[in-house]
Amino acid sequence: MKNILVVDDAESFLRALADWLSISAASWKILTAENGSEALEILKSVQVDFIVTDLQMPVMDGYKLLAYTTKNYPDIPAIAMTGSYTSEAKERLRALGVPKCLEKPFSFKMMENTIMDEFALRANSKRLIENCQPEHCFIWKM
């Protein structure tokens, strides 16, 4: 079972997205936090396999959460979501190594597909690395 941590300060949106993801992917356990600080507490106590975070939140915003997780949990993939995806947000996320951001409003199915695509990409990359011969492969870290 994969643990997906969803972080957003809008409680009704957070609950609706968490419920959708729980129902649509039975192999996922959805953990929720209302800000980055709560998310860090969860990360300290539970093995998390994926992070979905809003960018604009009180207490600790998504940028600070992603900066922390990129440094301290580099193997956990993450995507962002925001109501205002500007070029500045895109640059900040790129600098943090976060490849995707969904702009609200989006369909929950789109979020589900984005998470599934990221898991598939990482699984395929892992298989390629495991099956390649060192003299024939260029290895990079995702």
Describe this structure in words.
The protein is an alpha/beta fold and 142 residues long. The chain has 5 helices and 5 strands. It has one domain (2-136): Response regulator (Rossmann fold). It has helices at 11-24, 36-45, 62-72, 87-96, 108-131; strands at 2-7, 28-33, 50-54, 78-82, 101-103. Strand 3, helix 3 (62-72) and strand 4 form a beta-alpha-beta unit. The protein starts with a strand and ends in an 11-residue tail after the last helix. 23% of the residues are buried.
Please give the number of β-strands.
5
Could you spell the SSE succession in H and E letters?
EHEHEHEHEH
CATH-scheme architecture? 3-Layer(aba) Sandwich
Mean pLDDT: 88
In spatial order, strands of the major sheet run 2-1-3-4-5
Reported by name, the CATH topology is: Rossmann fold
Number of domains: 1
Radius of gyration: 15 Å
| Category from helices, strands and their pairing | alpha/beta
| The named CATH superfamily | Response regulator
Largest sheet: 5 strands, parallel
Considering DSSP H and I runs of 4 or more, what fraction of the residues is helical?
40-55%
Poorly predicted ranges (pLDDT <50, ≥5 residues)?
Answer: none
**Between the first and last Cα atoms, what is the distance in angstroms?**
22 Å
Q: Quick one: CATH class?
A: Alpha Beta
Sheet-strand content, in percent, reads 15-25%
- Overall geometry comes to globular
Number of helices: 5
